[in-house]
Amino acid sequence: xxxxxxxxxxxxxTIPAAFEMDEIIYELRDHSAGLNCGRWDYIFSxxxxxxxxxxxxxxxxxxxTMTVPFMDAYVKLxxxxxxxxxxxxxxxxxxxxxIKDNQQANDAAMDNVRADKLREVRAGHDGTWVAHPALASxxxxxxxxxxPTPNQLHVRREDVHITANDLLNMNVPGKITEDGIRxxxxxxxxxxxxxxxxxxxxxxxYLMEDAATAEVSRSQLWQWCRHGVPTEGxxxxxxxxxxxxxxxxxxxLEKKAGKGNKYQLAAKYFExxxxxxxxxxxxxx
Length: 285
Description:
Strand order of the largest sheet: 1-2-3-4
Number of domains: 2
Shape: globular
């Protein structure tokens, strides 16, 4: 088999890897197909690595989009690095799944997918990926319309000059709300409950949630509680408040679920990870 026949695309889904993109491409050389933005894992890595630093506290997960400073810098640097080295820069995953029982909500969700893929192709990405097969045609249409060439290696992004400070710029607008806390708890509990039943990803609120999104949720909860951040309503998030909300959400989810669910067991495991005390290297370890 000729050298270079088999190639791999490396997910840049940790903050240390963002500082080593050139080195990763060099080490793979003939075996590199490019680099890929790993959206949720990357956000998890940033929170995890800087969780003890109050300057790295982020607002509600919904406010941490691909256009906030540290994520925008990460994307631009990845594209520039890949194209300078002659390999492809892949976009991130669209986590939406079709909403079959609400056409209006489904149309809005698909519009969000189109907007996200349009942002990627205009930034210079060469391709992308999605969480559900039904989204493939949307992504393909956006890229085929806006990228008539096989790739965008010619888009060198010489206008981009990213520094270490840009990659670590946590100036993210937004607030920490009780609703955001409950959503993080729901995602964490939903994923853990599925995992305890042997399921690796679960649809929650028409988004495909996996270990990465559960990790973002528990890491945010841990960090918020660790530093005793106040919510938008002025209530300090401490151990007692976090556990109160955790058990309220677990009880609510259990009532809605069928027999044999494991939400209370999920809460038992999850509660050790959201109070700002114990922090496992990975949620499922």
